[in-house]
Amino acid sequence: MITPNIPERKGVDFTQEALATLFQQLTERIREVFWIVSPDWQEVIYISPGYEKIWGRSCESLYARPLYWQDSVVDADREQVIAAMMSIKSTGDLSDVAFPEYRIRRPDGSERWICARTFPLFDAEGNFHRIAGIAEDITECEQAEAGLRESEDFVKAIADHIPALLGYWTPELRYTFASKEYTKLFGHTEEEMQGIRIQDLVGDELFKEREPYIRAALRGEPNSFEGKLPKPDSETLHVLAQYIPHKVNGQVQGVFGLVTDITAIKRSQEQLRVSDAALKAVSQGVVIRDPGQCILSANDAFSSITGYSPTEIIGSDYCLLVGPLTDPQQADRIRMAFKNGTEFSGDILHYRKDGSAFWNELTISPVRNEQGHLTHFVGITRDITERKHTEAALSIAAAAFESQEGMMITDANSVILQVNRAFTEISGYTTEEVVGQTPRLFKSGRHNADFYAEMWDCIKCTGGWQGEIWDRRKNGEIYPKWLTITAVKSDDGTITHYVGAHTDISTRKAKEDVIKNMAFYDPLTQLPNRHLLNDRLSQAMAASKRSGYYSALMFLDLDNFKPLNDTHGHIAGDLLLIEAADRLNKCVREMDTVARFGGDEFVVMLNGLDTDEAESTSQAEIVAEKIRIALSEPYWLTIKHEGGIDSTMKYHCTASIGVSLFFNYEASQGDILKRADMAMYQAKKSGRNLIRFHDSKA
């Protein structure tokens, strides 16, 4: 038995036996293993009973084999344990040595963690002659530490991967824990964060803003708030900060700080705010519908277009707008788009709440999430009723533009912009030849500057003009047309364009001329008839009143005309009448009139002779004599025989002429004609081929 060498103490008397008993009781009752070995580890001087409890092996086995205990050390730890032993043996280090913690495997296969220390023992002369050691079973502590480390690692792993940034600080506001992202946010390592004060980390200004919330948490009051947090890279984050007190037995031991980056949420909220404002501002109706049949939301424009209130719209479907004239095929296309999750785009006639119809330019688009699953439909409604009416009007206008009537469109400076096919057919010009030109290209020369000035004055004053005008075709032909010009004005009244509608009235004019000719001209001689003569006589009387000039009326009857008709037929008679008419026209001025009253009777009216009656009588007599001589010349009449030889005959015919002067309205038209007729009969009674004047004094 080893007994310790205990120094003497005053008043204390230890015998060797008492000390041995005390040492034995001490070593046997402690849980640890106490041993004493030789300096070379080859002899076990003493091993306490704790060895058997911890190693599960007998003390005698160790006395017999001093290094037997090493066999229990697990392979992974044995090398470092032996290295520690050899270090003491080779270096003779006499200081206390702590072995590295190591594991042993007991005979039952269980493992235990061991913590051992050694220290030198000296003899009475102070020489080193033993090594003492204590080995402790620390398995439970190691397991607890391992569990703690595992828990810490678990918490750290969670903290490093949760969206929020997590930190913990003491009541003195010093950090003892921070998640990886928390440290990165402030530009520090985990080691640098340990023990740092929060005010040193965030700065005085930010700490001053946060301090009321931190102090509240230290009082045991959890709280949260939104704020801004500047980053080292100058970016500013929107964050949600939460301060949670850590209590143990009701006492605050520290504060957890959770910081959640809500920058993306704030941006999304701002985008939603802008989007919502935009939806309210747009003129199109916007509807959001779920994949079922319910409208989830609609903007103000949709309510304005349809007349339904938001409460009436939410929860309803697009069939709300279907009416009696809605195209069923379009309605089916919409239903199929909703059913198949596809797009729809088209125009459809829908109905407002008040029953009025409107044209809806409808677009429906499916909305899918990141996984491609259908989540919503977005519908865009645009009221295009006015556009539809405009399109219909334009269609009608286009059809009218390509009608039989020639159409021309110019700008405000009368530069031609467009003509239709009918215009090119009327004018003979191609579209390319007239576009860029002005209507002056078609001027006929029949109208003077005053005519066009009056036309444009009318357009400026009334916005349009219409009337008959003569133009020239490309081939040079002058033709009449009916022209309607309309000025097109902008909202402020400025003229922007002119539209001209051109109708070729050549055929109509020709027909009018034929009708006019039949009404006012003798069809055989083309001389004015009785109606036209009466009209011109009326004009001559009015002119005489204005000017004070005399005019004369001659009544002529061909002598010996009837025998020609009776002997040679009407063809010969007609030829003579035509020739007589031609001779009469050659005897008078252009301002005078030669008319045929029928049969062999002609009337000649001489206008504006003179203001003196005698001079006027003399002038009338000269013309009458000229006529008498011309009509008395022989007539060579060529009669054409169908299928035979033409025959030419010579015939003599004279004329009896009665003349009556008239001035102002001293006599009526009937009286003037009657006087001339009476004078003509006097010439016949006097022997024919004579001239007689009516004597107004007789």
Write a compact overview of the structure shown.
It contains 22 helices and 28 strands. By secondary structure, the protein is α+β, with helices and mostly antiparallel strands. A hairpin with a 5-residue loop joins strand 15 and strand 16.
Describe the structure.
This protein is of the alpha+beta class and 698 residues long. It has five domains: 31-137, Beta-Lactamase; 144-265, PAS domain (Beta-Lactamase); 282-389, 2-Layer Sandwich (Beta-Lactamase), CATH 3.30.450; 402-509, 2-Layer Sandwich (Beta-Lactamase); 521-693, Alpha-Beta Plaits. The protein is 40% helix and 29% strand. It contains 22 helices and 28 strands. The strands form six sheets. Strands 1, 2, 3, 4, 5 and 6 form a six-stranded antiparallel sheet that branches. The chain has a five-stranded antiparallel sheet with strand order 8-7-11-10-9, sandwiched between helices. A five-stranded antiparallel sheet has the order 13-12-16-15-14, with helices on both faces. A hairpin with a 5-residue loop joins strand 20 (478-489) and strand 21. Helix 20 crosses helix 21 (613-632). The termini are far apart. The mean pLDDT is 85.
Structural category: alpha+beta
By CATH, the topology of the largest domain is Alpha-Beta Plaits
Q: How many domains comprise the coordinates?
A: 5
Question: Can you count the helices?
Answer: 22
Shape: rod-shaped
Which second-level CATH architecture of the largest domain applies? 2-Layer Sandwich
Instruction: Summarize the biggest pleated sheet.
Output: 6 strands, antiparallel
GO molecular function, one term: catalytic activity
Domain PAS: 278-345, 390-438
Domain GGDEF: 549-696
Protein name: PAS/PAC sensor-containing diguanylate cyclase
